[in-house]
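Researcher: Re-running this chain for the archive, since the previous output was lost when a drive failed. Same request as before.
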Amino acid sequence: MGGEPFYDYIEGADLAAAFRAAVEQADHEHGLDSVFADKDTYVVIDDGPLSYADAEALAKRLIRNNDPRIDDRWGPLGAIAVRGGPRELWHVPLPAAPAGYPDDESAVLAAVRDHLADGETITRSCLHQVKRVNGRVYATRGATATATVAGAATVTGWYLVGQRDT
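Model: Regenerated structure tokens:
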């Protein structure tokens, strides 16, 4: 109703905590131009969780159909639970291995293994502050891995959908 439709994915299984973090980050980065500037409530749309692609499709359908739960620029955001959505693991310490690691993939997996949920796989990664000798990867002091992971069977985030004031 007079607003601009939007949708966005936020990471975090706990909706209240993820929403608060998204509002704080958006307000810090964009101030009054934030999509959350006039939003302080949400309504859960589906019993879900849905896959990332299905949640995005549902968000677009809600907008296209002017769903009354999300069609008020002053009203709540819709929240769709997402399973297996992408999440970031930032600067996870790389364990020292006396013989090093045979490749980057092995080193990243060693770092993030304990942080992966059931069914999750690494989709993108990089290593920081490592040493490479004869094709092997060695952890130096402060060596870390950063990885994007996806595919968990549990809730990993929320697709938010609604109208923003223009």
